[in-house]
Every structure is written in structure tokens, then in C-alpha cells.
């Protein structure tokens, strides 16, 4: 049958942060980490939806230790406030799960193209601001959720914010490539530290991600098509979250690994996943890292 959430090792005594945990993959990830004993922080933009997710989690896992904390990845001020307000000296698991897909052109509070700003820069800044607490763990994991859509577009280091041309799907795919390049460079820099940087993707899982872009653009036919595909083709979030949970908890996960569903990269139990060759480009990974430090103002000093 393969690895499932039932195989998650005991997480008692460990603290985890999951971004975008108010629905979909993030909610399942937070719930299953809590079920196995972790103290879980649901980091969400919406207070109403975040607190509702905590209530659902506690209804299913009454003994869980779970809390909501506000985090808007489209606002670096919010990212800094989240990190400053997190009352724990040690962090064992960070799951960079939140994201946007194929939304109309917009800019974040700091002027970045929204998909690049939320999917990559917000998580880059968050991870860096939590780095000291991750390094305080005896065995920390940073899991960044990418997508097989990364295979459709490499980043353009000269136009990271799509200022010369914006195509919503291209921007999304580039942001998912950025997730993998970030993971690669973080893994390289963390060598010698008790921190494993890994990436995961859900295959095709039914979440709000597919329908939000068409809805924001007013494309009702597109939204209906995505809902139909979610019903007919996609796996449920409980299965889609398995690769993230595996990367966050399974023994033997190696740095810069990419975990996804085994069956045609779309469904099934988690295992090693194919990735585009450009996501293994060390020069591109370092260039993106340098640009991300400049854009966010966040530096990973503890890693040199």
C-alpha cells in the first residue's frame, strides 16, 4: 500500500509551523502532525478561517495542541511580526505550504508580483527569520511545497517580478521552480547543521488552489471546469498531503529531495519524484538566493 499518514513517527515534544493551514493540504498536514503529538501552529492570513480550522482540528483530535497565528505572506511586515511573536525558542518542522496559483496580475504590499512574492519570497523571508529556532532543534525539517508545474517554466533571474511580461500560468510555474531552487540552496548552506531542507508536491490534489485564480479573474467557466476536474481527476487532500508529511517526518529523508506521488507523478503513495534539470542548477540557485536576500532584506547569517 505504501507510506501513509498512519506511518508518521511520534512527534511528541516537537513544534511545527504550517503555512496556509486553514484549508486543503495545509489543514491536513497540520491535523496529522498534531495527531502524532506535535504542537502545531496554523499560520494563516485569515483569522476567521484559521480559527475555524483549529476548531475542526480539535474536534477530530481533542488532545491536540494547536493554535492559530496570523501570517500574510504577501506582506513582509506580517512575516516579521509572525516570527517576532512566535513564543517558542525551538522549531522542529516548518512546512512552507501556502500559495497562489494562476491569479490575475497584482503586487504584494512590498511591490512584488503576487505569485512570486507569496509562493517564494514570503517563505524565503519566513524561513530566514525562523532560522535560529530551527537550528536550535536536534533534527529540524524545512519542507517547501512545489508543484510538477515547475517543469513548464524556469525562472528568469532578470525579471523575477514579471515586470516585462506577465502570464499568470508562467508566473506560477516560475514560482514553483523558485521553490525547488530555494530548497537546493538551503540544503547546501545547511550542510553540517541538524537541518534538512526538502521539497514535496501533491500531484493533482483537489484544493481551493485550482479554483481561486479563475474566480478572482471572473472566469466562471474556468472555475466550473476546475471544480469538475477536482471531482473527477484529483486525489483528495488527505492523499495530496502525504508527500509533505513524508518529507516532514519520515526517517531517512535526504537534503534537497523532492517527494511526490508515485503513480505517474499524480496519485499514489509518496516517493522520490522527477524534477526538471534546471532545478539542480547551483548557479541559478545561488543567484536566486542573493536576489531574494536583496528583495526581502532577510539574510541567513547563521548559515554563513
UniProtKB/TrEMBL annotation:
UniProt-listed SUPFAM superfamilies: NAD(P)-binding Rossmann-fold domains (SSF51735)
Superkingdom of the source species: Bacteria
GO molecular function: oxidoreductase activity
Swiss-Prot/TrEMBL keywords: Oxidoreductase
Family according to the record: Belongs to the short-chain dehydrogenases/reductases (SDR) family.
PANTHER family: PHOSPHATIDYLINOSITOL-GLYCAN BIOSYNTHESIS CLASS F PROTEIN (PTHR43157:SF31), PHOSPHATIDYLINOSITOL-GLYCAN BIOSYNTHESIS CLASS F PROTEIN-RELATED (PTHR43157)
Descriptive protein name: SDR family NAD(P)-dependent oxidoreductase
Amino acid at each position: 500500500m505504501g507510506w501513509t499518514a498512519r506511518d508518521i513517527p511520534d512527534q511528541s515534544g516537537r513544534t511545527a509551523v504550517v503555512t496556509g493551514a486553514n484549508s486543503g493540504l495545509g489543514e491536513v498536514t497540520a491535523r496529522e502532525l498534531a495527531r502524532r503529538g506535535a504542537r502545531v501552529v496554523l499560520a494563516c492570513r485569515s483569522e476567521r478561517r484559521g480559527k475555524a480550522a483549529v476548531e475542526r482540528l480539535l474536534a477530530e483530535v481533542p488532545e491536540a495542541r494547536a493554535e492559530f497565528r496570523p501570517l500574510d505572506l504577501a506582506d513582509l511586515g506580517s512575516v516579521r511580526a509572525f516570527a517576532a511573536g512566535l513564543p517558542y525558542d525551538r522549531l522542529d518542522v516548518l512546512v512552507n505550504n501556502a500559495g497562489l496559483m494562476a491569479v490575475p496580475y497584482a503586487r504584494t504590499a512590498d511591490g512584488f508580483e503576487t505569485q512570486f512574492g507569496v509562493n517564494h519570497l514570503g517563505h524565503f523571508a519566513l524561513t530566514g527569520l525562523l532560522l535560529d529556532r530551527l537550528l536550535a532543534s536536534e533534527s529540524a525539517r524545512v519542507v517547501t511545497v512545489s508543484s510538477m508545474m515547475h517543469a513548464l517554466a524556469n525562472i528568469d533571474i532578470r525579471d523575477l517580478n514579471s515586470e516585462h511580461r506577465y502570464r499568470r500560468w508562467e508566473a506560477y510555474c516560475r514560482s514553483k521552480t523558485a521553490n525547488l531552487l530555494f530548497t537546493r540552496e538551503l540544503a547546501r548552506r545547511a550542510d553540517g547543521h541538524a537541518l534538512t531542507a526538502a521539497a514535496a508536491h501533491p500531484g493533482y490534489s483537489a484544493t481551493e488552489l485550482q479554483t481561486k485564480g479563475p474566480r478572482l479573474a471572473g472566469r466562471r467557466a474556468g472555475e466550473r471546469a476546475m471544480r469538475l476536474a477536482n471531482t473527477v481527476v484529483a486525489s483528495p487532500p488527505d492523499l495530496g498531503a502525504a508527500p509533505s508529511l513524508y518529507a516532514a517526518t519520515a526517517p531517512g529523508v535526504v537534503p534537497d529531495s523532492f517527494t511526490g506521488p508515485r503513480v505517474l507523478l499524480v496519485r499514489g503513495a509518496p516517493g522520490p519524484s522527477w524534477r526538471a534539470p534546471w532545478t539542480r542548477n547551483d548557479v541559478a540557485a545561488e543567484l536566486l538566493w542573493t536576489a531574494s536576500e536583496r528583495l526581502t532584506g532577510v539574510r541567513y547569517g547563521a548559515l554563513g
